[in-house]
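COMPLEX REQUEST
Ligand: adenosine-5'-diphosphate
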Amino acid sequence: MDHSARSASFAAASTRIVDVLVPVALNQTYSYRVPRGMELKAGDVVGVPLGPREVLAVVWAENANPDPRLHNRLKDVSEKLDVPPLKGELRSLVDWVSNYTLSARGMVLRMTLRMGENLGPERARMGVRLVGQVPKRLTPARRRVIDVLSDGLLHGKSEAAKEAGVTTGVIDGLVDEGTLSVEAMPRALPPPPPDPGYAQPEFSRQQRTAVDAMRALAANGSFHVALLDGVTGSGKTEVYFEAIAETIRRGKQSLILMPEIALTGQFLDRFASRFGVRPMEWHSELTPRTRARNWGAISAGEAPVVVGARSALFLPYADLGLIVVDEEHDQAYKQEDGVHYHARDMAVVRAHIAKIPIVLASATPSVETEVNARKGRYQRIVLPSRFGGQHMPHIEAIDLRREAPSRGRFISPRLAGEINTAIERREQALLFLNRRGYAPLTLCRACGHRFACTICDAWLVDHRFRQRLVCHHCGFSMPRPSACPNCAAEESLVAVGPGVERLQEEAAALFPNARTMVLSSDLITSIETMRSELNEIAEGRVDIIIGTQLVAKGHHFPRLNLVGVVDADLGLGNGDPRAAERTWQLLNQVIGRAGRDQGRGVGYLQTHQPEHPVMKALVACDREAFYENEIASRERTLYPPFGRLASLIISAGDRASAEGFARRLAALAPRDERVQVLGPAEAPLAVIKGRYRFRLLLKSVRGFDLSDYLREWVALGPKPKGNLKLEVDVDPQSFL
Ligand code: ADP
Ligand code: ZN
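STATUS: Structure written out below.
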């Protein structure tokens, strides 16, 4: 043994090594030395040097058998952050999700540390107070600051500057003069915790059975999946609130996942009327400061209830005791970029790992969940009718082949007549069309030129409010020209087909005295304006609401009794294996907005195919017929949940490279009789943002480990280099 080896083994005896996971696109952990005097265990959040940078990382494991020769080459952990360690349960979830989705472990970890440099104890905010003499040189700006601070109280520095309409430089000047003093602001007090006994409602007899089941499941506290299956307006929210109340009593945290957090204003208020305070929110619109504060509160166990978008699933709860997935069937739970995960499915995984109960709530469960309930894997808790005796809406089809609107119009005479009657009765009507903008296509009457995106395989959508033609895939937009760019004809451009903006024009012409409002995601400037518009509707200050799927979800508009679906067939013909299911869910949800409070709700479906099984099931309010039919068809074709799917999406800047790569990859697919590899085929959306796209679809039998198969295959295949990109999507929801 030479000298250097001896010193290395000496170091091994006295130095601990840890393997840390870094929140970047890497799978493997890296080893670092633990400096003397630092205590580290798995889950601790640390800072480590990585290349030239200092990065955040999480201790994944102690390295018990480090190679002594590496020792001197390893770097030291630089610091341990003062935050609670990530629990084993969350680390297992990160490993599990990474393994299942084939996403880099570091990228999954990143979702748990969603606050980057803001990690760690909150820095104190500085405030200013008026303490001294008015300075000799008194500018108008200084005068205004002194006026604002004349109460002698401590004001936030930037707030004071804003209120006085000056820059913070003016305030600094007054501090230098001794007129103002700088003091640390007291920390905002955490809100009082939700009170489980604050205002418990009286439940109907039907609800009581469900409430008992909710309380039992929460009290039991072990892994258990329940489907809360209740028609729209049956009180699912009130009922699952009782599971939350029970969980609060047990001193544990609850997470409520929502598909569309921007729309939860009403929900927050309802929560507050039940529990006395609003729950903590988690979504992408939070300011960095609020994010950091909420993250801290959640990990310290100071946030008993969190309501959030799918990303809230990955937060480091100190003691999670219950998960509720509201509108579990919603497509928005699938993340379609970065880590391709389905938040509902991963929520069940988290509940399983953490050994806690989970409630999936829906009026129109996904076929996957419905099958799990039928097979007894999930407990079904039913709310079969509306609370307060309200009837479910009556649904009628309007056969557009027989009752066509007049040329250039989209509202049939019968629907228009019904809307008129509703308005005369001082009720609201909702016109639903799941298409943003004014018209999906613009063409030149003279030469037939169609306006398409320059970098996507898509038509440009006419947006009249913004006065631009817009690509819905990449955001490209251009002003609507006055002449055709192809043949130079003037005044020759025509809008083809309807979007919500065009419907508003038609509604204004048909019902000149009615107040209309368009609700569409592209018209929302902020969550706050959205919430206030929804309030206006709820308060009855709008007669006709014209909206996209944004209005379908969860809202309670007491005066809304009529829903007209302008194009019920819209979602049926897109080649998606879940097209029928999606149409069923969306139309049930949107018609379910009608008749929730008083009077009878009614829904009209304008359709070209009233004999389609989905339309027939909707009109007959025959839920059983829909699921029977759909489940049988999935079983026959071995689509989920009776078989499994995965997609590989290959894209490149030019068509030939994308196709070539896809073909070489396809040729290397490992042979296995349990898997079928379909394609490569050009994607239905063949070009997005100038990238050419090819898809491979994998279909396997039910119990097959598709992730493992994919891993093996991708490892065998060519490596995507340069401009090529290979995306793996296990359990795809989108097939575009
Ligand atoms: P769902 O989520 O099933 O569509 P909601 O939970 O939104 O139904 O309930 C529909 C309406 O009925 C809401 O306004 C809700 O406040 C009310 N409601 C439901 N159950 C009760 C109850 N037990 N007591 C009072 N109001 C209730
Ligand atoms: Zn585009």
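REMARKS: Confidence is low (pLDDT under 50) at residues 1-13. The chain has six domains: 3-87+97-109, 126-184, 205-388, 390-435+498-632, 437-497, 643-730.
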